[in-house]
């Protein structure tokens, strides 16, 4: 994977004036923010604030009506999912999207799909290039399995795993694509204290070890404030705050909208 | 070369000379088994020892070893010994506060630590451990930005440079070692009071290794899986002392959670596990059999009945009829062989269990499918080596004959006393405790109550200090009762009370795996341990177990009075993090009685419901509260005639 180290660098993703609506519903209105290389950037906000929509705009699932996306210096109106993947964007989903009947190992191997050049025929007879590719990709996948400490479930069908582990497998699959930008949609939702803590450690480790830039959506304020470098706050599709956790914590609009009005 | 082979470093060098290309250590890494030969191990240990010396490690100093079973940690123990130092393996799952005690008690200056998780705990403990100077780590993940700690690789590099500058240093240090030097310091589990540092010499562990090796004819082709805590005396004997004495191969699993798979891949020939591991394995097999097709299930049960009838007898070499022999041979082909394979026990010649009592059904199960499972008896103070069950003379309820070179005697108070070369040298900085444990004749007082049966096999009943009396004067052996209860797969822990009382009552912890599965099969929904434990159906299930124990007790006049009259199922699992169990999972009886005094009052006061709130500690050191209204249940007890009928 890309070299490690964690020195926050230049802006690699810039969103400008993004507006998105579904019929009459305005999901996002005029949102601008940026993401710098190697940073952990959180998007927070109450339910329905437009957090997941924002993530979907970044990797091209939704097409905004207005605004531009600049990724690695290239400005465009919208992303296309497979283009996003080719350019090094990987993501996980709020409601786990894994192949339930397949083993953990196979699920993670699917994350390497983009890196496989062999034809279907070659893969079917498992010969020559297909075999070499499989070995090289498997080595990469093993590295990720070791990294996320899921060796014990390598051969287990995903459907049999508890929720916390499924989340970890999903992260593993996203990492298998060796992304430069990783989008995590509520990676800690529905977890208990210990699982959350493990997940936090993995997110930080990924960021540190591989230098991966991470954009994450999270509900748990404690988690967000602990691990993020900068936080953007959405409310009813508008941006109401942006800055370091301390700045955001002190922002009155954020306190009112998200933490409740103080008396 | 160094003269006689009476220290571990000299034995290691001998293996490197005699069998340089024989695998000494294996570890599964990134899904592939890696191996190191004796020559490679000796070379690595040499560099490591020189590295430690370059950092100021000197003769007599202590090196803390903290982490899971990793090859580099085993090698670090050898490296410390090469310099005349003493490795102090510590329980890696203990929280930082417990580290503080041991690090201070052992006056640790140097620590070899596995990974970030352990480094964080050591660093948290550090402000309270003034002696601690140098921390080395094995796995660099997540440690890039830590200051003031040194990686294992760097230490080895420093060592190679030091070795080049001081060519004779390493051999000189190894030659200086003496067999009566302390080779390791292991901490007792601290069932009572604070843990004590048990100092054992090279001679002691070599005596235990030699005895065990001759007893079971171990040789370098043997292979073991090293997965039990390195701080436990059992692991130190089987994965370290015997490893270096015999020169066989130790295999380190990929992680704590992959042990089952790794066991199957390695297929060890020599195996050691506490009873709970054997129990977990059996539970998994049974659960999977329940899910199997009807034909498979039928074959399984049909042939398990054959195995129960004659399997253990065949293993013991006792006469068995020709018909049964033939059935067993078919069963071996269809069931026992494949089963041993699934369990990773196809190649096992000798398997031992110790550390707690093993249930008769469990023990018999393994022996009946052809696994030569035996019991041994020993403690930290005796290098885990006192009594062993000999092949072909295994009795369920005894721990076997005194091992070669060990004298065992029963004291006037019924306590088991042992003497031999394997005894500890002393408790570290506790001359009072040493004097108390070893008497003028050189016998170590084990603290266990037991007696010899007619064949000279030792039978252990209970901890001597735990054996009490009911108000009526009848003997009360709580561990004996608790073990009988724990032999049921649904019961994970039990704590019996009765000393000085008119009758016996007990706390029960259900086994969440086993009872959870039972509940699932019945479509009984539950949200977690506390919820499941309070279900009336679960109470009924546990009551059956308790009553079965009562029926058995009723048959033995000495124990009939110990029948359990009332019990309750605790709302939380007893946990070492809450100080209720020791790190080796033994109940801290006094502590539990004090903490849950209100529940004991409810048991004896005739209440049927009792509210309780308990603080629990999570793994991360945070704490929370668990509250519940506990039901106190009555169990049937039996008179002698009913018991006979029930039996």
Describe what this molecule looks like in 3D.
- The complex is a heterodimer of chains A (263) and B (647).
- Chain A is of the alpha/beta class.
- In chain A, 38% of the residues lie in helices and 24% in strands.
- Chain A has 2 domains: 1-88 and 179-263, Rossmann fold; 99-177, no CATH class.
- In chain A, the strands form 2 sheets. Chain A has a 6-stranded mixed beta sheet, with helices on both faces. In chain A, strands 2-1-4-5 form a 4-stranded antiparallel beta sheet, with helices on one face.
- In chain A, strand 1 (11-22) and strand 2 form a beta hairpin.
- The model of chain B has no long low-confidence stretch (mean pLDDT 91).
- Helix content of chain B is 40%, strand content 22%.
- Chain B folds into 3 domains: 8-272, Rossmann fold; 378-465, Luciferase, Domain 3 (Luciferase, domain 3), CATH 2.30.38; 468-646, ANL, C-terminal domain (GMP Synthetase, Chain A, domain 3).
- A 5-stranded parallel beta sheet of chain B has the order 4-3-5-6-7, sandwiched between helices.
- With 647 residues, chain B is of the alpha/beta class.
- Chain B is built from 22 helices and 28 strands.
